[in-house]
Amino acid sequence: NDTITVDQLTDWLTRFRDLVTEQVSYLTELDSAIGDADHGSNMTRGMGAVVEKIHASPAGTVDELFKGAGMTLVTSVGGASGPLYGTFFLRIGTTAGPRTSLDAPGLAAALRAGLGGVVARGKAEAGDKTMFDVLSPALAAFDAAVDVSSDLSTAAHAAYFAAQTGRDATRALLARKGRASYLGERSIGHIDPGAASTALLFQALVETLGE
Ligand code: ADP
Ligand code: MG
Ligand code: MG
């Protein structure tokens, strides 16, 4: 598929809600090792509110969908992940604008703006052991795939593969941002919870787009 519609983007967010809900214990476990054990509940509550709101009043355009999702996350999640994912979605919305679908370069540009929002808010750099360490390589892989093919599913698969590698690589890192950074050396040896939930975001995109 060469384009993704507002309905499919809505399915993406819904599938992400389903995955964080299915994996709530795993996300909680990761955050109990190097944080305050609330990443699972933060993501489940936040994405639950997002999906509830979308279903109550379905979005007509990409910017409406993602601005709504971003605002809901910022207001419903107290932890760091609320404003970070919230800004990610808000920037996707403002960059995509009032369209009813996106092609592969359009989605790539929107996602990249989303990453820019995460960095503007959290100041994370590569290797800080955060969601950046999944988002950044995943979007690099997405962009590289889009350069050679207009097929969104191919790009999503490439992004998800890079996301899993990025997630697993956070295990060896020392946290330099967020709560986990308070642990210093003791943060080494655990996967970052936000990196794990961000990998689920790309899994959800793959599942939404299909083969
Ligand atoms: P809190 O740490 O406030 O309890 P969560 O547990 O929901 O919030 O989310 C923690 C995740 O947020 C971390 O695992 C990390 O991936 C991400 N994170 C924290 N601080 C930053 C930051 N400055 N930049 C990017 N991501 C961050
Ligand atoms: Mg936490
Ligand atoms: Mg917290």
TrEMBL record:
Membrane-traversing stretches: none
Q: Name one GO cellular component term.
A: cytosol
Q: Which InterPro entries match?
A: DhaK_L_YcgS, DhaL_dom, DhaL_dom_sf, Dihydroxyacetone_Kinase
What sequence ranges are listed for the domain DhaL? 7-207
Give the molecular function GO annotations.
glycerone kinase activity
* Protein's GO biological process: glycerol catabolic process
Which one Pfam family would you cite for this protein?
Dak2
Q: Which domain of life is it from?
A: Bacteria
* The keyword Signal belongs to this UniProt entry's keyword annotation: no
Keywords of this entry:
Kinase, Transferase
Q: What is this protein called?
A: Dihydroxyacetone kinase subunit L
In its UniProt entry, the species of origin is given as Cryobacterium mannosilyticum
Question: Which lineage?
Answer: Bacteria, Bacillati, Actinomycetota, Actinomycetes, Micrococcales
